[in-house]
Amino acid sequence: VPVESLPPQEPENSPPVDPEPETPMTQTAKLMAEYMAKFPDILRLWVAHKSGAGVGTPCYCGNGVRSTRCRDCCQYELSYEFFVKHDISLVDSGGHLPTLGHYGRPCPNIGNSVMMTIVEPNGVHATKLFFCGCAENPSVDSRFDQLMEAGFFPGSVDSPRTGFSFEIMRRFHLASLESKTAALDFMSCLRRLTDNATTAKVPVSTVSRASNTSVDTEPIFHRHVLQQQSTLDGNFHTSHFAKNCDPHDVSLFNGKAHFPPDVQYCTYLKSIPLSTEVEFQKSTCKYLKAVNRQDKKKFKFQDVNGTINGQCSHVFVVASVDMHHSERFANADAALARMLRKMVATNNQDIQFRLAFENIDQVVTYEIACAYYVKIKARFRESPDLADVADI
Fold this sequence. Notes:
Layout: H1 27-37, H2 39-51, E1 78-81, E2 84-86, H3 88-91, E3 114-120, E4 123-129, H4 143-149, E5 152-154, E6 162-165, H5 166-179, H6 183-192, E7 228-235, E8 240-241, H7 262-270, H8 289-292, E9 302-304, E10 306-312, E11 317-323, H9 329-344, E12 362-366, H10 369-372, H11 376-382
Parallel strand pairs: 3-6, 7-12
Antiparallel strand pairs: 1-2, 3-4, 5-6, 7-10, 8-9, 10-11
Region (Disordered): 1-24
Protein name: CxC2-like cysteine cluster KDZ transposase-associated domain-containing protein
Pfam families: CxC2, KDZ
């Protein structure tokens, strides 16, 4: 046997190879991980704040029953002059400080005051707050919970010193969606405000049509009208350049909505080679460039070449997956499988689009359908990640 063909042998007493040191988590990743650990409590307290627990209980003044709750503030402001606002916690330190934990009523077991930075629609304020110290209060040991109950989102999990009102978070969310306002610009605007001034709310009446797919769904009754039309489409404008990103970045979706879990999706892609006969088949049609150019490393310096969306004819996106090596059949299969699972609710998805799936025609189109659908059954049945929807 030639010496060159023998495998190299390692010495028996070779020292063990040390594993690569784990990259430490960044401050942003640590903060997001702390918030994700508190997410069930955040959701519970956010919803509880909308209910108004004090409504229907005797008023603190003793003259009646509370019938209304002010949603704009949790404490009343004291004005000494016309149109001049004063922070009562800075004017008088004789116990007239806002207290938390009793829906505006003073707490009988308050401790030392805490200087807080409160961000409201009318600006950024430094004020003192008293946290509840009653033993019967389930939130007595948590400033985080007491701020959430009062309508303020804490700036940190442990010993927060900053609170953002739910209203200011809602306004920033709308400003970011409509005008792409950055957080720094939004805070600069609040810093310059001296009073709250908003336009009047315009009443809008909305009339919407409620669909019912179970009505008149006989095979002979206008089947083309009752079709569920969906499409697969690749979008190369949603690419992402490879950067030195945080490897411990915390996902806020984790498989919710139309995005699949990233770890599960990448594991599925690694299980399918790029050039297998079932997954990869060239087309004889010269117009199908998306098929014939699969696995071409034409997207330099990109870790994501784009996305493939599974959407209805009204461009309501149901599934969306990343493309890493151009437009592969494996990417489209994952998007189609996730879209089908949403429609028929085969798994315990967080969002389920419940349709009368078997009572109406299902039409799925794709610009490279003549090549994509040739062996789609074989691909779905041979993949453990797609087999559950292979016969739909």
